[in-house]
C-alpha cells in the first residue's frame, strides 16, 4: 500500500520518497504497520512478511477459565472518581502481559523484536525477521474499542454516584528499531525522523476514529521508570476522555486566552527565549528550555517555533529538526549525571507529547509541546514521590530550573544549527 492510500494521513515530500508504510493484520486481528526507510523496501525491490504465523485466537473471542468454563473477553472498563472527575481505566488482562525486564521478568523472549523462528516467546509480535520501525495495536491494552459492546454509562452497584463505562480507547506500540539491545539515544537522526513520521501518521489517522478525544504519544525508558519490555519503543494512548493533566492545561490556556487574548504556551516559550538563561537548545524550528517552574530534577520542554496544534501539522523541515533535537536531547540526557568515568548513564526518562485534543473547543488555544523528564536526581539517587507529591500533588523540587539548565549548557552548544554535535 502506498502513502496515498491512507484516508487522512498526508506525507510530506521526504516521506513520500523515503518512507514506505505497509499495513497488515496480526493473527488475532490487530492492526500492524511497517514503516520502512531502507531504500530496498521503499522502492518495492523487497517486501516485508505480512503473514503472522502464530495460532492466536481472535482477540475478542471468549476463552476458557481455569475450571474449563467459557468466559467472555474481559474488556477494559473505566470508572469516574466523583471527587476529582477523573476517569480511571481498569484492565485486568494486563496482569498477564509478558515482562522481560527487571526482577519480575515472566518471559524469556522479546515480543517486540523481529521474529526469530523457534524463539521462546511465540516468535514475537513482528511477522518479519527484520524491520525498520513498526506500529501495532497493543495485545494487552489499557483501553480498547470492542465491537458490539455498549459504551453507555451505568452505575457501579447500580449507584449513579459511581459512573462506569467501556474504556473504548486504543493503545498502540511503536518499535523504533529492531535491535532489542539498542538505546533510542544511539539511533541515527534518520531513524528518529521515521519515528517522528510514525507519530504524525498515527495522530492523523486515529484523530478520525469515533469516540477518541485525545492522542498521547509517549516514551517510557528505563527499568526504574517501570518499563516491562527492554526494547527501544514508545506507545500511543488514545483516550476516550481528556486526561487529567491535559484538562488542567486546557483550563489554564483557555482562561489565559479569555483574559489576555494570547496563547499561554506561546507566551511561555517567548518568555523563556527572552530570559535566555533556561534555553538549552534551539534550531530553525524548535526551542528546548527548562521551564521556570520545573518539577522534576531533570526536565526539558520542547516547543515548535511556529504555532502548531498537533504532530501531523508539522511540515517536512519541522519533522527533520525535531528528529535532530530529540536525538541531541537524549544523548545529553544520558550525559547529564556524572558517574565518575565520564561516560554518563542510560538515563531513565519519560518523553510525553502534549498535543491539542481532537474535539474539545478549547483546542484552538493550545499548542503542541513535548515534556521530557527524569526522576533521577543524581547518578545514584531517585526522587521518590512521597507524602506531599503523592498525597496532595503539591510538588517540592530538589533543585532549581537554572541549575538544570546550567548543567545542559556544559554538555553542548545551544544553537544546533551552528554546531551539530
UniProtKB/TrEMBL annotation:
Cite the entry's keywords alphabetically.
Carbohydrate metabolism, Galactose metabolism, Metal-binding, Nucleotidyltransferase, Transferase, Zinc
Any Pfam family: GalP_UDP_transf
Domain (Galactose-1-phosphate uridyl transferase N-terminal): give its ranges. 74-241
Q: What is its EC number?
A: 2.7.7.12
Read off the CDD domains from this record: GalT
Top-level enzyme category: transferase
Entry's Gene Ontology BP terms: galactose catabolic process via UDP-galactose, Leloir pathway
* GO MF annotations in UniProt: UDP-glucose:hexose-1-phosphate uridylyltransferase activity; zinc ion binding
Region ranges (Disordered):
103-124
Q: Name one GO cellular component term.
A: cytoplasm
Q: Which residues form the active site?
A: 233
User: Per the database record, which ranges form the Galactose-1-phosphate uridyl transferase C-terminal domain?
Assistant: 250-388
Cofactor(s) listed: Zn(2+)
- Xref: NCBIfam families: galT_1
- What protein family is recorded? Belongs to the galactose-1-phosphate uridylyltransferase type 1 family.
Q: Which named protein is this?
A: Galactose-1-phosphate uridylyltransferase
Q: Which organism is it from?
A: Bifidobacterium mongoliense DSM 21395
Amino acid at each position: 500500500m502506498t502513502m496515498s492510500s491512507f484516508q487522512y494521513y498526508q506525507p510530506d515530500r521526504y516521506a513520500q520518497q523515503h518512507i514506505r508504510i505497509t499495513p497488515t493484520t496480526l493473527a488475532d486481528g490487530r492492526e500492524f504497520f511497517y514503516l520502512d526507510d531502507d531504500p530496498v523496501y521503499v522502492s518495492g525491490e523487497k517486501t516485508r512478511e505480512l503473514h503472522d504465523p502464530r495460532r492466536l485466537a481472535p482477540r475478542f473471542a471468549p476463552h476458557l477459565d481455569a475450571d474449563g468454563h467459557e468466559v467472555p473477553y474481559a474488556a477494559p472498563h473505566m470508572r469516574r472518581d466523583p471527587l476529582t472527575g477523573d476517569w480511571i481505566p481498569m484492565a485486568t488482562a494486563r496482569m498477564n502481559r509478558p515482562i522481560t525486564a527487571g526482577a519480575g521478568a515472566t518471559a524469556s523472549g522479546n515480543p517486540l523484536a523481529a521474529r526469530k523462528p523457534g524463539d521462546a516467546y511465540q516468535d514475537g509480535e513482528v511477522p518479519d525477521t527484520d524491520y525498520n520501525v513498526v506500529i501495532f495495536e497493543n495485545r494487552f491494552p489499557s483501553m480498547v474499542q470492542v465491537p458490539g459492546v455498549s459504551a453507555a454509562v451505568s452505575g457501579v452497584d447500580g449507584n449513579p454516584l459511581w459512573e462506569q463505562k467501556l474504556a473504548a480507547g486504543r493503545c498502540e506500540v511503536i518499535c523504533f528499531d529492531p535491535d532489542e539491545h539498542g538505546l533510542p539515544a544511539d539511533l541515527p537522526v534518520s531513524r528518529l525522523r521515521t519515528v517522528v513520521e510514525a507519530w504524525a501518521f498515527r495522530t492523523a489517522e486515529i484523530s478520525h476514529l469515533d469516540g477518541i478525544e485525545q492522542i498521547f504519544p509517549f516514551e517510557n525508558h528505563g527499568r526504574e521508570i517501570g518499563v516491562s519490555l527492554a526494547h527501544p519503543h514508545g506507545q500511543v494512548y488514545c483516550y476516550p476522555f481528556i486526561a487529567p493533566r491535559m484538562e488542567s492545561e486546557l483550563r489554564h490556556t483557555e482562561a489565559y486566552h479569555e483574559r489576555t487574548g494570547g496563547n499561554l504556551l506561546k507566551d511561555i516559550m517567548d518568555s523563556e527565549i527572552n530570559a535566555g538563561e533556561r534555553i538549552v537548545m534551539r534550531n530553525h524550528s524548535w526551542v528546548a528550555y527548562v521551564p521556570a517552574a520545573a518539577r522534576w530534577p531533570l526536565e526539558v520542554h520542547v516547543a515548535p517555533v511556529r504555532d502548531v496544534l498537533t504532530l501531523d501539522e508539522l511540515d517536512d523541515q519541522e519533522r527533520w529538526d525535531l528528529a535532530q533535537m530529540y536525538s541531541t536531547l537524549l544523548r545529553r540526557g544520558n550525559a547529564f549525571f556524572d558517574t565518575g568515568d565520564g561516560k554518563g548513564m542510560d538515563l531513565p526518562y519519560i518523553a510525553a507529547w502534549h498535543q491539542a485534543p481532537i474535539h474539545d473547543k478549547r483546542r484552538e488555544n493550545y499548542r503542541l509541546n513535548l515534556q521530557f523528564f527524569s526522576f533521577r536526581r543524581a547518578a545514584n539517587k531517585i526522587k521518590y514521590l512521597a507524602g506531599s507529591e503523592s498525597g496532595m500533588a503539591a510538588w517540592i523540587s530538589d533543585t532549581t530550573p537554572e541549575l538544570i539548565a546550567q548543567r545542559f549548557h556544559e554538555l553542548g552548544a545551544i544553537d544546533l544549527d551552528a554546531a551539530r554535535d
